[in-house]
Amino acid sequence: MNAYADVSLFPRNAKPLTSYRKYWAARFGTAPFLPMSREEMTQLGWDSCDIIIVTGDAYVDHPSFGMAVIGRMLENQGFRVGIIAQPDWQSADPFKALGKPNLFFGVTAGNMDSMINRYTADRKIRSDDAYTAGDIGGKRPDRAALVYSQRCKEAYNEVPIVLGGIEGSLRRIAHYDYWSDKVRRSIVVDSKCDLLLYGNAERAIVEIAHRLAAKEPVQDITDVRGTAFVRRDTPEGWFEIDSSNIDAPGRVEAHVNPYLMISDQAKAQGETCARDDEANAVADAANAQVGAKANTGFTISPLNFVPNAALQGKGKGKLKVPPRERSVIRLPAYEQVKSDPVLYAHANRVLHLETNPGNARALVQAHGEGHTARDVWVNPPPIPLTTAEMDLVFDLPYARSPHPTYADDKGGHDGETKIPAWEMIRFSVNIMRGCFGGCTFCSITEHEGRIIQSRSEDSVIREIEDIRDKVPGFTGVISDLGGPTANMYRIGCKSPEIESACRKPSCVYPGICQNLNTDHSSLIHMYRRARALKGVKKILIGSGLRYDLAVKSPEYVKELVQHHVGGYLKIAPEHTEGGPLSKMMKPGIGSYDKFKQMFDKYSAEVGKKQFLIPYFIAAHPGTSDEDMMNLALWLKRNSFRADQVQTFYPSPMATATAMYHSGRNPLGRVTRSSEVVDIVRGERRRRLHKAFLRYHDANNWPLLREALKAMGRADLIGNGKHHLIPTYQPQTDGTYTSARRKNSTATPKAGRLLTQHTGLPPRKTK
């Protein structure tokens, strides 16, 4: 038995999803598709919906689409769930299409943030939308979560609104908005929703649905993890900790941090994982039940020293601190972070320190002043799902296809209008959630968390068999067994005690943590079992690979390379230079070189000619012009030519976005004199960094020539192999500006192409 089972170092005692008594409407059974019209409701025998989900995506009944997962999960609990997909938001009428929901509206912008979905990194509007039938843009509004919430209130003012999805997750506190170039209020305030669910929401949505069904007022539901809401005052019995006691901006001297390990606290500042001796200290303290007397309401913990004299006990060297479940950290108010970039970076850093479900505390942030003042209260993150619960979610009776309303006589499979996001994943299987990589430009950790939640092997195999037997058009090839990262399945911390106490933002940066279990054997076994299934010709791996983790298991690399690569394998070194890599929290290019050696070796052993497709980011915070020049030289030396490139896109709440807005580095303690980060702003400089990635494109040569001369690197301009770009320039009539005409064409011979790295369906070249 776990020695810490009664100590709650990591609160794994969440109520199981299967423990609720089903709602009375379970008697109606399972719907072939969740209804999108009154006619479908009538066919099912429904007079009303208990819950209506409004989504910015086309409705695809598949476990890769959020509305389907939440809808089927609620159906599993006995509720009647309807779907309003991509409604016309110009009036409230489309939001009345299914009538008034008995319990609540569930609102989501969709699988993607609506602003990232609608605009490029250069703030240009897109003409396409991979989550819309026909790949047509414009089917959702800007900031869809806000608009949908407002229209739901107009339709039925008294019906509670529960907001979810990644758009809400990334805006749960005051956040920098790249598109308006200003700090916006929490989405909880602007949407006027009753509850915001952030992260993977199955556990929270099920509890909330049952409590609302039991006639509990929505304003009383304030204790569900993974939720945020507005309240006027901090309730009695809670202890507020000012965030400046955690990471004081403007102060340089070291101070005790109440959220770090017991050793090297000032040095660590939330970036160092618990060592074995620290974990032992945690265990000893837990077993001994170190703390103040029960009637004080406070406990003493080696993890939580509060630097506040008012809390000091009379005993020597002891500090009384409130229990974690009754502590709330007050972030700087919206008005403060709006006007002070340093305070913004500080608040962002504190939020990221409070993301481990094992030790995170609630957060509160004031919005408004005087009689309009109100607090946005953010409860700690949701408890990760167990393997059994993950199996339940993915084994629900999905139709595994778009709703029949998208059927027509052109273009798609079996009369369906093509939905590119569905086409991309129809033959793929999601095997896990979460990511402990901590890349600063990525929002996966902020949404799904860093603790890996894995399905059982049997559940994955069942889904592959379902695809083989039930999905039209299957040719025997599974396009992906993956998730946010291809090779984090069943990988995690060796010790639950260390995991629950750790505050490190990444388990693999600056190197692989010694406490991380890097065993890939479960994944290898799954790959082998899957490719041995009758009717399955090939199992490909399409998710991005964490290659610095993969090299820890040569057997995995061999299995992957020799059996699961379809000629090309995508990986993401993102850059070659130490400056930007340190701001991304990515490993050095040496890790890529080591993996490439193994990749080439195992490919040669089976006589296969296969290639790596590395992805790179332009204009990331901390990237100098010289860094991009050196990356371009590396690309040329290695004969890589990018077809499409990714420019840094500041998504709300990401750590790199805090760098972009504040010009400071929140990976370390934020002070008035802390590290200033080089920010790539302005259209011309962003164009230059993109041009370095596409050094082979003749259209970029004039800009690159001008820049190289200004940088004192005119030696890289010439017609030799060691030069980056040539001296001549092709004209529209096929002639050249140089008197010396090259025998070859103006652009270099075609090399290996790199594709866009977004984690989304590839977009058309603009």
Question: How is the main sheet built?
Answer: 10 strands, mixed
Instruction: Please state roughly what percent of the residues sit in beta strands, choosing from under 5%, 5-15%, 15-25%, 25-35%, 35-45% or over 45%.
Output: 5-15%
- Overall SS class: alpha/beta
Radius of gyration: 27 Å
Low-confidence stretches: 1-10, 250-319, 409-413, 739-766
CATH class of the domain at 17-221: Alpha Beta
Distance between the termini: 59 Å
CATH architecture identity of the domain at 17-221: 3-Layer(aba) Sandwich
Helix content: 25-40%
The best one-word shape is: globular
Reading side by side through the largest sheet, how are the strands ordered?
3-1-4-5-8-9-13-12-11-10
The name of the CATH superfamily of the domain at 17-221 reads Response regulator
Q: What name is given to the CATH topology of the domain at 17-221?
A: Rossmann fold
Q: Total strand count, please?
A: 25
Q: Can you count the helices?
A: 26
Mean of residue pLDDT?
85
